[in-house]
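request received
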Amino acid sequence: MQLLQAILPRLSFGVVAAEAARQATPGYNYGHATLARAPYSLADLAALQKALLFGDDDVLALRQSAAILADQTDAILDVWYGFVASTPELVVFFGNTRTGEPDPAYLEAVRKRFAHWILDTAEARYDQTWLDYQYEIGLRHSKFKKNRTDGVQSTAQVNFRYIPALTIPITTTLRPFLAQKGASANDVERMHAAWVKSVLLQAILWSQPYVREGEF
Amino acid sequence: MQLLQAILPRLSFGVVAAEAARQATPGYNYGHATLARAPYSLADLAALQKALLFGDDDVLALRQSAAILADQTDAILDVWYGFVASTPELVVFFGNTRTGEPDPAYLEAVRKRFAHWILDTAEARYDQTWLDYQYEIGLRHSKFKKNRTDGVQSTAQVNFRYIPALTIPITTTLRPFLAQKGASANDVERMHAAWVKSVLLQAILWSQPYVREGEF
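response:
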């Protein structure tokens, strides 16, 4: 094992370690057979990517960001959680409906999965497994499944309007982290633009459970 | 009047001319008393702007873009219409359901209002009148009012998913036009970021008619 660690590139070892951490995270069901099949197809995804000008260069830019972000997820989440905590309109969705206060255990459980989401987004696998997990994430924000994963008593839903909106704070605050490891200004710009498209794409997929039958 | 023209700054004269053109455009009902009141309030708007990190500097940046874009709207629309025409997934929403072909009169009628929309967005007035018109625009994309303004036979709706998605092509293709009049790279970046936020904000408001009761 010592030899294995010595000869594997640092990134590959990081990926193996990250995968073990993912599987140990409560509620992180990416790839689980229990997940429902997404109500949108890979062809729908391809059409949406076209409308978003999302191309092969964006996939490469996202994957370039994976190695840059891998050891920064905690610092990124500190910034994101700071923003949510200081915005009453958002922190309410983490509120315990009995105490009226934010639920620390709920915040922490979501935070662990959020760290994996950063790397999932950067890894940019757009296959059926990924699509099905996007649907699950959407359900968990909506009244269909919110609170159930973590067994909490909180608001019935995250209101639709905030889901696409969060594209902006997430990608704006990410930008300095993309620049932390010496990438050129042009590459930081490419990675940032790819992140904006990918997060907006996901926010659209997550919105499906909120949209009236036949209108998505 | 000659004296008046001489002493008024060019921009003010442009605004007066633009206002006359707006009022002469069929279906451009901004500020009309016939419009329904938006189902979201100015307080809802302020909360959404906060979640989008949309601040006073974005308002200034949008207004800076107004003078830059004022005489470029036709060229911008050539690019946008070129993108729609070359994307079957989008041009279908301009299709005549009897012929199966894009309807040139429909495309042209929307284009005239689209030019005003560019300047409306750049002028960044976020009042009740603006809010009510955003609601009207949303209705006109959805099955509630699509085709009615122009008396056309076309698809029943623009599917929800494409509304937030269009934030990207609109703002990506706008960027070179923001740089056309000698603004600094930093100002172009500020204006572009403000446009992304504003278009996404509008796309969220336009989505309201698609979202299930009580979930917006």
